[in-house]
Amino acid sequence: MKAGTMNVESGIGIITIDSPPVNALSVGVRRALDESFKKFAADESVNAIVLICAGRTFFAGADISEFGKPMEEPNLQAVNDIMENGQKPVIAAIHGTALGGGYELALMCHYRIAVPSAKVGLPEVKLGLLPGGGGTQRLPRIVGAAAALNIIVGGDPVPAAKALELGMIDALAEEGCLLRDAIAFAHNILNENKPLARVRDRQDKVDPDKGNAELFADFRRKNARAMRGFKAPENIIKAIEAAVELPFDKGITREAELFHELVYSPESAAQRHYFFAERETAKVPDLPRTTPPIDVKTAGVIGAGTMGGGIAMNFLNAGIPVTLVEMSQEALDRGIGVIRKNYENTAKKGRMTAEQVEQRMTLIRPALGIDALGDADLVIEAVFEEMAIKKDVFGKLDAICKSGAILASNTSFLDIDEIAGVTARPESVLGLHFFSPANVMRLLEVVRGAKTSPEVIATAMKFAKTIGKVPVLARVCHGFIANRVMGCYMDQADAIILEGTSPAAVDKAIYDYGFAMGPFQMTDLVGLDVLGRGSNARTVRGDLVSHDRLGQKKNGGFYDYDENRKPTPSTIAATIIADVARFKGIENRGEQTSEEIIARLLYAVINEGAKVLGEGIAIRASDIDVACILGYNWPVYTGGPMFWADSVGLPRILAKLKDLEAVYGQAFRPARLLEEKANTGGSFARG
Ligand code: 3HC
Ligand code: NAI
Prior knowledge:
By secondary structure, the chain is α/β, with parallel strands linked by helices. It is built from 28 helices and 19 strands. The strands form four sheets. The protein has an eight-stranded mixed beta sheet, sandwiched between helices. Strand 1 (4-9) and strand 2 form a beta hairpin. The longest helix has 21 residues, at 594-614. The two termini are 37 Å apart. It binds 3-hydroxybutanoyl-coenzyme A and 1,4-dihydronicotinamide adenine dinucleotide (NAI). The site of 3-hydroxybutanoyl-coenzyme A (3HC) has 25 residues, from strand 5, helix 3 and helix 11.
C-alpha cells in the first residue's frame, strides 16, 4: 500500500496513512483506505480498527487540487460504506487538524479520539463549498442544527476540548500517546460490548427542530451581512435544513445536489484560487529554502501613533517583548493607553482574560529616545511619512543598533533604497508595510530593497507567519503593490464624480460588486482630514475639509449623517463637487451606469496590476490578488483583481481600456503585459 501501512496489535487493526504534507484525501489515499478497510474486514484476527495518520496532521480534507476535475474512483462515499456499515468498530485517532473531508471521514467512523492540541472542523465554506462527504447530515446529528449552522457556516476549527464538550469527539488522548490511547479505547469498546455507534442513525439532536423554520430564518437574518455575495452559506443552510427534515439517505442526496451547485460555481473557483494564492506568497523563487532566518527574540517600534501601536500589538500577541519609542512622554502615554484600551475591549467581549491583558502589557518597554533600541533584533519605524524624518531615524538607528539587527520601515510610499542609503548596512534594511488597523489586517507587504540580504528577506517572510500575517513580497516603487494598484481606484472614483456621477452611485456600484462599502463611504468613515492630507491642488476632498466636512465624525462629508450615522446624499457636497468641476473646466458627462463605474474604477486596478507585474514589483499575479483581498477587502469570491480579469476575459478588458484611453488618455493606456496576454490567449493565473 503506497500511502500508508497496516498492522495488527492485540486484535486491533491499525491503518496508518502517510501522505505528506497534510494527508489530503487524494485518489491515492482513498485507494489505500479502500484496500485496507476491505482487508481488515476480511481478517478474522482483527476485532476493531484504529485509523490514524503519520506526519503533522490527521486528514486535512479532500485534495483541493482535484476539485473541478472528474473524480477518480473510489470516492469517499465508497470508503464510507465499508467503514460505517462494517461489523467492526472503527476509531478515528486524531492529531493536528481533522478538517473538511478529514473530519467527515472521522464522522463516518464509529468513535473519535483526539489529542488535546488537535482541532476538528468543516472549513469548506472558505473554499466556497459545503462539506460534501456527509458532514452537513452527520454533524447536526451530533451537535444539533443551531450549533451545526455556526460551525459549518463559520468554518472555523474547533479545539479538542471544546469538540469533546460538543460531542464532536468522544474522548481525549494523552498528548504524544495517541496510538496507545486509541488502542486502549478500542479494547474498552470491545470489552464493554459497546454498540457500533453510527452517527447516521442518531435522530435525538435533530428531531426537536423538525418544522422549526424560524431557526433557519433567524440565522439567515442575523448573518445576512457576513454572507452577502457568497454562495456557499445559503447552500449549507439548506443542507442542514435537509438534515433536520429528511431521512438520512435523502439528506445525503440533497447534500450532493447542493455541493454540485457550488463546486462548479465561479465563486468557489475564485476562493480555491485564493486558498492556494495565500500559500504561494511565501515562496520566493530566488531565495533558497535553506536560507537561514535571523532569530527575532526582541523588537523595537518607533512611533506610537495609529500604526506603531497596532504593530506593537502583533509582537505582544506573539509573546515577543517590544520597546516602544516616542518623542514625548505625552505621545508615549497616549499610545500605550490606546493599546491597553484595545486589549481591554477584547477582554470585555470575552475573547481574552484580564490576566492575559496584563501579561501583554508587561511585555511593553516604553522609552523616550532611540538609544533604548540598541539590543533589539528587529526595529520597525512608524513615524511621520516624511523622507527627511525617516532618514534622520535610520541614521540614528545605524549608529546604535547591534550588528545584524533588522531595520524596517512601515512607510506607505517612500523609497526604501533611499532610506537604506543613509545607513552603512543597507543589507539589513527593508520595508515592512502593515495595513491599518495593524493588529487586525492580515496583509504584510515585505519590501525588498536593492541591497536587502536574502537572510533578512527570509526572516521577514517567516516572521510574518509568527505574528499571524500573510507576507507578500514587493520591490521598491511608489506605493508598492496594494497602495499602488488601489490608488488608481481612488483616483478614478475622484475623477468620475467631477464628471457628473454622484458619490452614491459610485458607492452603490462598488458595494454591489462585493466590497463592504464604496470609496466615498470609506473616506467618510476614516475621515477626510486623515486621507486628504498633503495635497496642494484644489480637490473635492480639500474643499470638503475647508467646509469642516470631515466625514462621519462631523456628521457630514461626502454624505450627510443623522444621529444613527445613516448616510443620505448631501446637497452641500454636490454643490462643492460641481464647483470644483467648474473650476477645473471638467465636462459633465452625466450619471454613469454601474457597469461603466465598475470598468472605470476596477479595470484601472487590473491595468496597474499588470504594470506592477511587468515591472517585477510583484513576483506573481496571485500576490496582487492576495494584497488587494487582505489589504483592501477586495471581495474574495471574485478571486482578486487579476483572477477576476481572467474570468472577465483579457481581450474584453483590453478593448474597454482602449475605449477609456480614447476618452481619458494616458491613465488608461493598456499595460504592455496585459496587451501581450490578451493578444496571445494568455492569462494571469496560468502565466
Ligand atoms: N488539498 C490539497 N493541498 C492541500 C490541502 C488540501 N486539502 N491542504 C493543504 N494543502 C497543501 C498546501 O497547499 C501546502 O502546499 P505547499 O507546501 O505546496 O504550498 C501544503 O499542503 C501545506 O499546507 P499549509 O502551508 O497550509 O500547512 P499548515 O501546516 O500551515 O496548515 C492545514 C495545515 C491546517 C491542514 C491547512 O493546510 C488547511 O487549512 N488546509 C485546508 C483544509 C481544508 O479546507 N479542508 C477542506 C477541503 S474541502 C473538502 O474536504 C470537501 C469535502 O467536504 C468533500
Ligand atoms: P501617526 O501620526 O499616527 O503616528 C506617528 C507617530 O510617530 C506620532 O505619534 C509621532 O509622535 C511619532 N514620531 C514622529 N517622529 C518620531 C521620532 N523621531 N521618534 C519617535 N517617534 C516619532 O502616523 P501613522 O498613521 O501611524 O503613520 C506612521 C507611518 O506608517 C507612516 O510612514 C505612514 O505612511 C505609515 N502607514 C500608515 C498607515 C495608516 O493607515 N495610517 C497604513 C500603513 C502605513
